[in-house]
Amino acid sequence: MDSHPSPRARALRQLSPAPAYVLMILGSLPYLPGVRADDVAAACGIPDAEVERHLEFLAEAKWLVRDGLASDGSLRYHLPTEQHREARCLARAVWGMRSAEGVEGLERLGRYYLACATAARRMLMSIPGLPGADGCPSLGPLPFSADDADAAYAWLQERGMEIMNVVPSVHAAGWYRVTVGLVDGLEPLLVRRRAVRVWIEACEHYGLSAAKAWGDRHAVRRMLIGAGTGLRAAGEYERALVRLAQAQDSARQDGHDEDEARALTEMGHTYWEMGSASTAQPLLDRVVRTRRKAGDPQGAALALILLGNLASASEDHSTAIKHLGRARGDIPVSQDPYNRARALAYLALAQQCKGDYDEATHNLHEALAEFELIDAVYWRARCQEWIGRTLESQGRLDQARDWYRHALAGYTHTCSTRDIARLSTSLEQAGRPSDE
User: Fold this and answer.
1) Closest alpha carbon to 65 in 77, 83, 51, 52
2) Is residue 17 classed exposed, middle or buried when 0-12, 13-18 and 19+ CB atoms within 10 A define those classes?
3) When comparing pLDDT for 184 and 414, which is higher?
4) Which of 104, 145, 149, 150 has the most CB within a 10 Å radius?
5) How much is the pTM?
């Protein structure tokens, strides 16, 4: 043993057993950018109030750093990477390389995150979550109420990075059902924040292999559709179509009409973005027919949004406005505010193309406000760009440039390179003096 231990090593030896246990659990977990009492209590299997005392003790001892207040008013901390490394060494020295304590801590935290993410998803998405998601009922109530969607989304925002950091370890441990549930629970955050690369990694790399290992065909389809959606958003159309075709084939074999409709809707969306309207149209028409026949107007509405865009692209703006207005009306705001706001934004774009600038501007501002309420950064930027486009169409270039700059900041935040390139060109053109 080193006869001259480091100050940190001496501090380790001076910790009393309870804070040392908390520190070793944190060390045995994957690196968590944020540390909060309810998460640590779940991982340690001890009450929140007791954990709060230990976290404060560790902060005073310079193991943790206080990061202010979370959205629920609780204290946030973080364990710096060097301290995490030392805590991991301590856990391995005391408990061994693959200790039961460390494994149990990871399992408890994974199940706690699953229970919370599943409850949040239930409030935030119109498509039901996967059946049979495991919770951790011994840990008491969830950190948000079952009818507070804003608090649920705030929790998901604040824990998104932690959940993604836990997913690889949970997957490696062979807890496939939990892995799939965590990825599925992240969907509202990935959609609204348009975190495309994380989306693809979560669904295609971890979620899909876990679903296959679990052996649940519905879960496999959910991950295939999620991967296809992420790949389409990234512009990787051919890979997206492969995943979506796999999902459609599986759904058809199992007679699962709802999954097949979701796969076909995404395929139609992909073909539309590829510029192949003639391929997209019959797929989307089929979805509208089958979902209405099944008594699912909301599922039909998602395809109607795309059919409205196809009509607008062919300059049939009246049909586009009809489709998009119906889609907006068929999506309940309480169940899917995200897609309801998308329908309104596209409706406004069709109105702008038709020359109804006042109506378009009013609806774009309304859609922008709705996206701001749900923190959909990418779609907020799209509305800002389209407001700028409407102003530019009316010759109001100074105002258009201001809106384009706001939109560019949003696209930059979401790393949307295609949108950045397109909007940079719009900004340059709007800045040129007229030759007339």
Assistant:
1) 77
2) exposed
3) 184
4) 149
5) 0.90
